[in-house]
Design brief:
The protein is built from twelve helices and ten strands. It is an alpha/beta fold.
């Protein structure tokens, strides 16, 4: 297993992280992801640790706390051997202050997560989304206090816009507070918008990328084919996709699949493994969050490491998946002397 530094921190994380949103199945939305319970979750943790994956990601809202509870039980007796990441910000519980990144909500959610995970500290604590109602200073002061108290080790953002993240980093620098060292983002061959602003920002500010839904909610798993009905047992068909249908260009998607099929045959790997390995070649990517409904899916995803696509294969996938950028990025690319193209960009 390869380990990489997490942004501007000294923490090394494996390039694969096991995402546990499939644990619990406590709501209709998350039942479409999976309903893994403690016994199978424990076996999955065993498989991960045997492969060198000691990094586990969850959130308070995954099945309304059930994911954290099951993960905590599956990790029993092994806390010192693993890294745990969880999140807050989205609605949890009742009352007018049941959401947000304000001090009141965050302090309550940290205590709840610690209890459910059966741990004294969180290795990485994410703001699951940006809270436009709470002053950035209030959020970051609270997070800095949590680090000072020993309940949190490192801070990360998730699903922020470029200005959300840059403003947060500037405020942390201004007051000498702990900063976000990572940004959990959606990024896949089907949607490369992360490259337009968030990746250059990550390069400039040394913020590590933690990639969620790297297979585009299962679209890149190999079951979606041109001219064939979509699988009815998928998360998408069952209403559990975190990636909206509207953001996936179907024509572009099938063009990507054609190239993936060719490269999968060349390498002897699966389409999903090739898709994941392509992400591992991208700048700023510290770790990819893989999920699995069962042990067999997990084993297949773990096979995405230990080998690398050739530069020629990467460029083929780059070309097949390239989509026209929106403004102002297309305008900036008209003058590459003023705005040099990033190192991952290929025509």
């Amino acid at each position: 297993m390869e380990y990489r530094l997490l942004g501007a921190s000294g923490l090394r994380v494996p390039v694969l992280c096991f995402g546990t949103a499939t644990f619990g199945g406590g709501t209709e939305f998350f039942k479409a992801w999976g309903s893994t319970q403690v016994e199978e979750a424990t076996r999955m943790v065993d498989l991960c640790l045997a492969a060198g994956v000691n990094f586990f990601d969850t959130a308070n809202t995954y099945s309304q706390g059930m994911s954290e509870e099951i993960l905590g039980k599956a990790l029993a007796g092994r806390r010192n051997d693993v890294l745990i990441s969880t999140k807050a910000t989205f609605p949890f519980g009742e009352g007018p202050n049941n959401q947000g990144s304000n001090r009141y909500h965050l302090l309550r959610q940290v205590e709840g997560s610690l209890k459910r995970l059966n741990t004294d500290y969180l290795d990485i604590y994410h703001m699951h989304g940006f809270d436009g109602n709470t002053p950035v200073e209030e959020t970051l002061r609270t997070l800095n206090d949590l680090i000072q108290s020993g309940k949190v080790r490192y801070l990360a953002a998730s699903n922020f816009s470029g200005w959300h993240l840059m403003k947060s980093l500037a405020v942390s620098e201004k007051y000498g507070w702990n900063r976000y060292v990572a940004h959990q983002v959606y990024y896949s061959l089907t949607n490369r918008e992360y490259e337009w602003e968030l990746m250059p920002l990550g390069l400039d500010q040394n913020v590590g990328g933690l990639i969620w839904s790297p297979l585009a909610a299962g679209r890149l798993g190999g079951k979606y084919r041109r001219g064939q009905p979509h699988p009815q047992d998928s998360r998408i068909a069952q209403g559990g996709s975190p990636v909206p249908e509207a953001v996936v260009n179907e024509e572009l998607f099938y063009s990507i699949m054609d190239v993936l099929d060719d490269i999968a045959e060349e390498t002897g790997k699966t389409v999903a493994q090739v898709s994941l390995n392509w992400l591992l070649q991208r700048p700023t990517v510290s770790s990819i969050i893989i999920g699995a409904r069962n042990e067999e899916q997990l084993k297949q995803n773990l096979g995405a490491v230990g080998w690398n696509l050739t530069m020629e294969q990467v460029k083929k996938l780059d070309k097949a998946s390239e989509a026209p950028p929106i403004y102002p990025y297309w305008h900036q690319r008209q003058n590459t002397r003023l705005n040099p193209l990033p190192p991952f960009y290929s025509k």
